[in-house]
Amino acid sequence: MSDINYISSFDSTNLYAKISLGESPIANLIVVHGLTEELDDYDEVTAFFNEYDFNVIRYDQRSHSNTSGIKELHERIDILVEDLKAVVDYVKKQLTGEVFILGHGVGGSIAAMFGIKHPDEVLGFVSCGGLSPTGQPLLRDDAGDESSNEEEDKGMESVQKQRMIQNFRQRLHEINIDYKQFTDCVLIMHGGDDKVVSSDDAIQFYKEADTTHKSLRIYDGLNHELLNVTSYRGMLLSDIVNWLEFELSCVEQDNE
């Protein structure tokens, strides 16, 4: 069961959000979705983390699904980062326990930028398929060679999404994002067969992040939609839970 809420951002834009509570919550997990996604795409992910007693907070980013806003997201990345800040502040005010952020694709990049701009605001980050400022988008070789109309439409959608990602990455480069300024705990996950964002982006993030609490996991044979691959979802989400629980145990040890 998820409670629907609207979280007011810095400019009074209402971010459509759903909050799903664990039975005996041990921490809070904020989910930041990627381009062309919406919070409902993470229903099964939410249910999984709830079973492990994590509160899950999801929200539709601007111009996505139930949240209005700017169309050209790459032009105002700073706004998206401040939207996430509003969500973090809301969670800290309304819920108890440590806060983690999980971002997918562009959502992973926004989460990383949040960590750079607002260090030590949350306990840790999970980045799935995030892109770096200096990497290159991977246009599918077969995008325009589909035989059926349905597959051709999917190919065109892929090309369009690639162009959006390319614009987003260019903007990241222009605002001079420096992963060396990232100092928080982070788990970086990427599909080894990702045709949307190269796994080299994940490797760059891992190498440059200025923190000793960082882990990199490249999953051979998996693509960009790491959290939506039914056959492997349980394994991947278990990896995340184990990492979250480890970071929580480190905090408990420090407090003893």
What does this molecule look like?
- By secondary structure, this protein is of the alpha/beta class.
- It has a single domain, classed as 3-Layer(aba) Sandwich (Rossmann fold).
- It has 6 helices and 8 strands; from the N terminus they run βββαβαβαβαβαβα.
- It has an 8-stranded mixed β-sheet, sandwiched between helices.
- The chain is globular, with a radius of gyration of 17 Å.
CATH architecture title: 3-Layer(aba) Sandwich
Q: How big a fraction of the residues is strand?
A: 15-25%
Quick one: overall form?
Answer: globular
Question: Which structural class do you get from the secondary structure elements?
Answer: alpha/beta
User: Strand arrangement, largest sheet?
Assistant: 1-2-4-3-5-6-7-8
Q: What proportion of the residues is helical, as a percent range?
A: 25-40%
Number of strands: 8
Radius of gyration: 17 Å
Kindly identify the CATH topology.
Answer: Rossmann fold
**Main sheet summary:** 8 strands, mixed
**Quaternary status of these chains?**
single chain
Number of helices: 6
Report the CATH C-level class: Alpha Beta
Report how far apart the termini are.
Answer: 35 Å
Topology pattern, helix = H, strand = E: EEEHEHEHEHEHEH
Which spans of ≥5 residues are poorly predicted at pLDDT below 50?
Answer: 139-150
Q: Into how many domains do the coordinates divide?
A: 1
Mean pLDDT: 86
CATH homolog superfamily: Alpha/Beta hydrolase fold, catalytic domain
